[in-house]
Amino acid sequence: MTTQDQGAGQVVLRLSHITKRFGPVTANEDVSFDLHRGEVIALLGENGAGKTTLMNILFGQYTADEGEVELFGAPLPPGNPRAALDRGVGMVHQHFTLADNLRVWENVVLGVDALSAPALNARAAKAKLRELSARFHLHVDPDAKVGRLTVGERQRVEILKALYRDARILILDEPTAVLTPQETDALFATLREAIGLGMSVVFISHKLHEVMAIADRVLVLRHGKLVAERAVGDTNREELAALMVGAEVSAPEPSEGAAGAALLSLRAVRLAGEGTTPGLKGIDLDLRAGQITGLAGVSGNGQAALSDLISGLRAPDEGVLEIAGEALRTWSPRAAVGHGIARIPEDRHKTGTIADFDLTENAILERYKSEFSRGGWMDWRGARAFAEGLIKGYDVRCHGPEQRIRLLSGGNMQKLILGRVLEGAPKVILANQPVRGLDIGAVNYVHSQLLEARARGAAVLLISEDLDEIMRLSDVIHVISEGRLSPAFARGTMRPEELGQWMAGKGYDDAA
Amino acid sequence: MTMRLEPIEAPGLARRAGLPALAIAGTFVIGALLAMIAGGNPFSVFGLILKGAFGSKFAVLETLNRATPLIFTGLAVAVAFRAKLWNIGAEAQLYAGAVMTAVLGTGALAWPSWALLPMVGLAAMLAGALVLLVPAILKVRLGVDEVVTTLLFNFIFLLFVGYLLEGPLKDPMGMGWPKSARLIPEARLPRIIEGLRLHWGFALGLIAAVTVWVIERRTTLGYEMRAVGQNVDAARFAGIPVTAVILKTALISGGLAALAGFSEVAGMKGALTKDISPGFGYTGIVVAMLALLNPLGVVLAALFVAAIFVGADSMSRAAGVPTYLADIMLASALLLMVLAILLTKFRVRRD
After folding, report:
1. What is the mean pLDDT of chain A?
2. Where is the ABC transporter domain (chain A) (predicted)?
3. Fewer CB in 10 Å around end: N or C, chain B?
4. What is the CATH number of domain A257-340+427-512?
5. Which fold has domain A3-245?
6. In whole angstroms, how far apart are CA A499 and each of A12, A489, A505?
7. To the nearest whole angstrom, how far is the Cα of B219 from the nearest Cα of chain A?
8. Does A471 have pLDDT greater than 80?
9. Shortest Cα distance from A381 to chain B (angstroms)?
10. Nearest CA in chain B to A370
11. Which of B10, B226, B239 sits opposite A333 (nearest CB)?
12. What is the pLDDT of residues B295-344, one digit of tens each?
């Protein structure tokens, strides 16, 4: 390859008339575009618009039915992941492709170095990894087990993996879904640095402000077709949003409301950390009726511990958990559900649903015992009716309650989970990353449901790494850093930069 | 050129039923090739196997009798595997049931048959359940791998049975043979039809299969077991009592395997010996896998496996082809079935 001596503007990647069908579904239809050296293009589209399929074709995971891919001027043999890898295409997937039982550096070298000789290469690999970590501000301990890392840290490993292989084209599938504003800024800074060195980037996203911030050109996909191409200088967020969904969209906004009594309180709660993730270091928190409490923070700072605590998976090591002013003795997931806590888990696939169960079986996961069991026998007729009610009431797009949930899109899966937990008007709602990976339509739907719950007097805890989301929806905001909780900040009293200081660990009373 | 697996989102019926059928067909092709190598005509060898398994009333009854313990151990494995409890110890649980049957059935309880048989059967189930409960508790409390513990416990328990037959349970009238005293007549499973050599153990096996099917599909426990087996994290998050479900599964699985021992001692043999099971516990794994863990499929798979064993015995006498053919065919059936199951979920792509 002689790309080094050629200037910017050279076409490094060309997709010509790509069409891909899955049975009756056309995922991509006649999509063509060029990527130039040192350029960032954004692929924008709702979930199911065909972005990921297109990139999987480029990366050889799928074979296109029609059309072809050209890399650095030469056609790419279809359906061979190694071909794209070997020619310098790195892909960071939305769903991570890491081995939990291996260490970070082992994951990074996996598939690069011979399997028989990892011990010999460990020192060199770790040194290179540390150097990349430092240069690209992607901090992660090379010796940590991946299974112990938070989602945010795993994302960094994925990016490092691509960088380690000297990728010259980087494909990032929803890379900022798990990053904080600072981390996102840092990622953008490193991307810009890499672009300066001749890297080209395909940035897949549906976050408009990020697309505007990083991309040179935006390609909008809708229903598998390329519907528009804009230089970022010639467009704006409103136009892009309209192009994406094919209509004008407006995000829900919270109305005025008054806070009520504390429905769930933590008093000096301590929880031991697990592995490299911190626990909780003496936290006081009140979730009040009619209020959305936002929890901002960098991933891996105790959000998981707090979420496990409120979900009922863990009980406090020290301190008290109070519901409506009453201290709890026994605590379990079933007790949490029984006390009217709706729990939207962070990971839809891993903890929220059972992939091979149908919609009915998934819908009743939390209430089968109390509502659909008569003396040890399942009431499948009632369960099915319940699932049908959720499908209708929460607009779950599916073939029916017998469909396996693994075949649903992320948005529809989340709608079913929403229905499952919100049915029966819960008093407390734990929403952990409720819109991660969802398209704008589904995001607005989830947010409007949370606002509706707030309006009827529920106490909502919104845990998110998206500061925009937190600031837009929350009545009060706490920041979490290394297991410590900031004071409550009322809506509109803090600027993002100030919250960022707290997220970085500044301002806490370290006597705790 | 490389090959790789691509997941299939919604496998069709042809794939889900056709591939397992192909696996069975492949088993016969392998069997045919081996028969030819052994100097037999494959068609006549299979003909003889078929005749040996189903060719006469005696043959059919022999096949059904041989299938009986395999139905129980197959169910035991299927139930456990469904909840991802890897019970490799059906052999030990079978012997636990057999020991309990011998202990209670040789005169310790002088009850009439209608009271004694259910009592012995339940006691045998309890014994088998407890044998699996120990590894299950070690798994949920300490995270000890149950594959290792249940497998190794088979050897421990067989040695224990050897000790019992040389010691406390030894038949004083047995002329030195390591066998227990004979069961009293009230403790024997009667024949289903007088004059035919088929005991009620087979009917009990069919009842057990239907019961397990009903448990898995219709009861709350079955729903919990499937949830725990499919995704233990989601089950725990939803509030399903994972530990309790695993322990209940262990009790059911161990109890089912023990019924194989009960049925063999009280139905077939009438006394406990060290060789009442020629590996029924292990063959139960093959049966369960061939049945794709479906309880009703277990009955068919057990009949298939028993037919090959019984038929191969008689074929061997007539055609001079070794009975090892049966073992190889079962092993092939298992491997091909595992492959077939994989291919119902993934498609092989050649690039």
Report:
1. 85
2. 13-248, 264-507
3. N
4. 3.40.50.300
5. Rossmann fold (3.40.50)
6. 40, 9, 10
7. 4
8. yes
9. 11
10. B220
11. B239
12. 999 999 999 999 999 998 888 888 888 888 888 988 998 899 888 888 88
Residue range B265-294: average pLDDT?
92
What is the SS3 assignment for B76? helix
Residue A147 CA to residue A444 CA, distance in Å, equals 32
Confidence of residue A120 (pLDDT cuts 50, 70, 90): low
Residue type, A45: G
Helix ranges, B143-199 (H): 146-166
Can you spell out the DSSP letters for A168-237? SEEEEESGGGG--HHHHHHHHHHHHHHHHTT-EEEEEE--HHHHHHH-SEEEEEETTEEEEEEEGGG--H
Angle at A294 between CA A288 and CA A300, to 5 degrees: 125
- Whether A357 sits inside 8 A of B221 (CB atoms) is no
Side by side, the strands of the sheet bearing A200-205 are A89-92, A169-173, A200-205, A40-44, A217-222, A225-231
Q: Which two tokens stand for residue A275?
A: 């592995």
Q: Which residues of chain A neighbour B222 with C-beta distances below 8 Å?
A: 378
- Of B9, B218, B220, nearest to A369 by CB-CB distance is B220
Strand A318-323 versus strand A262-271 pairing type = antiparallel
**Chain B residues close to A311, C-beta within 8 Å:** 237
SS3 call for A274: strand
- Tell me the three state secondary structure of residue A74: strand
**C-alpha to C-alpha distances, A272 to A278, A321, A378, A483, B28, nearest whole angstrom:** 7, 16, 38, 10, 59
Using pLDDT thresholds of 50, 70 and 90, give the confidence band for residue A494.
confident
Nearest chain A residue to B12, by CA: A23
Gap from A245 CA to chain B (nearest CA, Å) = 26
Task: Evaluate the CA torsion angle A400, A401, A402, A407 in order and state its sign.
Answer: positive
Q: How far off is chain A from B6, nearest CA to CA, in Å? A: 8
CA–CA gap between residue A183 and residue A150 (Å, rounded)? 14
Alpha-helix runs per DSSP H in chain B: 13-37, 42-54, 57-82, 90-105, 113-142, 146-166, 200-218, 220-230, 232-238, 242-263, 280-290, 295-319, 324-345
Interface check for B227 against chain A (CB to CB < 8 A): the answer is yes
The residues, any chain, with a CB within 8 Å of residue B245's CB and separated by 6 or more, are: B83, B221, B224, B225, B228, B235
Q: Do B227 and A361 touch (CB under 8 A)?
A: yes
Burial class (CB within 10 angstroms; exposed 0-12, middle 13-18, buried 19+) of A225: middle
Radius of gyration of chain B (CA): 21
Cα A232 vs. chain centroid, distance in angstroms? Answer: 25
Q: What is the DSSP string of B32-52?
A: HHHHHHTT--HHHHHHHHHHH
Q: Find out whether B77 and B250 touch, Cβ atoms under 8 Å.
A: no
Token pair 């009827």 in the structure block, residue? A456
Report the distance separating Cα A458 and Cα A471, nearest Å: 19
The pLDDT score that the predictor gives to residue A6 is 44
Written as six digits, the tokens of B4 are 């790789």
Distance from CA of B61 to the nearest CA of A (A): 36
Amino acid occupying residue B41: N
Residues of A in Cβ contact (< 8 Å) with B238: 333, 365-366
Q: Which residues of A touch B235 (CB under 8 A)?
A: 354, 365
Q: Test A354 with B227 for CB contact under 8 angstroms.
A: yes
Partners of residue B213 on adjacent β-strands: none
Q: What average pLDDT does chain B have?
A: 91
